[in-house]
Design a protein that fits this description.
By secondary structure, the protein is of the alpha/beta class. The chain contains 11 helices and 12 strands. A hairpin with a 2-residue loop joins strand 1 (14-15) and strand 2. The structure holds acetoacetyl-coenzyme A.
């Protein structure tokens, strides 16, 4: 018999008293040279583990991220029983989230190799945006250049008070290459994004909060992870397909005209009506009881 993944929010598989067991099996998410993956209580924590280089995104890290997010995607479906309900992305060592693309490797790249490197990380960030579960970047320490861009591909960012953000590429004769010229203006607006990118200036967590780059600032690393897990736990109590469709709708509409964006939303709205959870959610409301979502 297939082992059941224990969605161990508590021993009865409940979150806030609601049964969240969805007959899921333990997913095989693979093993990686540069990443650590830890799946607990339906929350997958993905840690970039190169503290000696402040978790810089070497070509090996990018390859590992591609493989890992492909495997995670396969675990984010109702067929798989939704064993992964949310992802936290972070960096090892306590000093940096990710200090950028790997400057040592880039120093000897020719334009073609650099283009392949950039496009590979673009593909990873698109994969993150397509994942039908929320991804939170938990930033403690430096999130610079490619590190800031990696965080920007996540649904939102929580930061510790020790976090620092920036796009310092111009200091190196470079420009953002992992999505910063697109996603930073989307997140904070054109003016602030231009200023950050042209100056290469670093900002602290409080300034990042004021800009809307981060959603929340927590006092310590521990509080940061507690907050990220609590938010993902709260979201896990909702209908997973609805959350996935909401993400798909927001991602799909971003950067489009209003009319095109509304088309994307209309498709997601229609799709929600094909799910059992939508029938359950609306029926439960009318019957004045709590909905029990089956993840279908
Ligand atoms: N790539 C490769 N190695 C890096 C790195 C990076 N982005 N950032 C730090 N490291 C390495 C350092 O070389 C150093 O290694 P050694 O011990 O072997 O010398 C180690 O990590 C520790 O770093 P520091 O000694 O520099 O630590 P610090 O506390 O003095 O400074 C820092 C910390 C301010 C973050 C500094 O390391 C720094 O400025 N790093 C580079 C940040 C940066 O410019 N990032 C953007 C890269 S370009 C980019 O990302 C392009 C893109 O958009 C795709």
């Amino acid at each position: 018999m297939e082992p059941r993944w224990p969605l161990a929010w508590d021993p009865d598989h409940t979150i806030n008293g609601e049964d969240v067991t969805m007959n899921s099996t333990i997913p095989d998410l693979g093993s990686y040279q540069t990443l650590e993956l830890d799946l607990a209580d339906g929350v997958l924590t993905l840690t970039v583990n190169r503290p000696e280089a402040l978790n810089a995104l070497s070509q090996q890290v990018v390859a590992d991220l591609w493989k890992a997010f492909t495997a995670i995607q396969d675990s984010c479906t109702h067929d798989a029983g939704w064993p992964v309900r949310g992802v936290i992305v972070t960096g090892a060592g306590g000093k940096a989230f990710v200090a950028g693309a790997d400057i040592r490797e880039m120093s000897s790249m020719d334009p073609e190799a650099a283009s392949g490197y950039g496009r590979s990380m673009h593909a990873v960030t698109l994969l993150i945006e397509k994942l039908p579960v929320p991804v939170i970047a938990a930033v403690d320490g430096f999130a610079l250049g490619g590190g800031c861009e990696f965080a920007l591909a996540c649904d939102f960012i929580y930061a510790s008070e020790a976090a620092q953000f920036g796009q310092p590429e111009v200091n190196l004769g470079l420009v953002p290459g992992f999505g910063g010229s697109v996603r930073l203006p989307q997140r904070v607006g054109l003016g602030p994004a231009r200023e950050l990118i042209y100056t290469g200036r670093r900002i602290d967590a409080a300034a990042a909060l004021r800009l809307g780059l981060v959603n929340r600032v927590l006092p310590t690393r521990e509080a940061l992870f507690d907050a990220a897990r609590a938010t993902l736990g709260e979201i896990a109590g909702k209908a997973p397909a609805a959350v996935g469709l909401a993400k798909q709708s927001i991602t799909g509409a971003t950067g489009r005209s209003t009319a095109k964006g509304l088309e994307v939303e209309a498709e997601a709205f229609r799709e929600a009506f094909t799910t059992e959870d939508m029938r359950e959610g609306t029926t439960a409301f009318l019957e004045k009881r709590k909905a029990v979502f089956a993840g279908k």
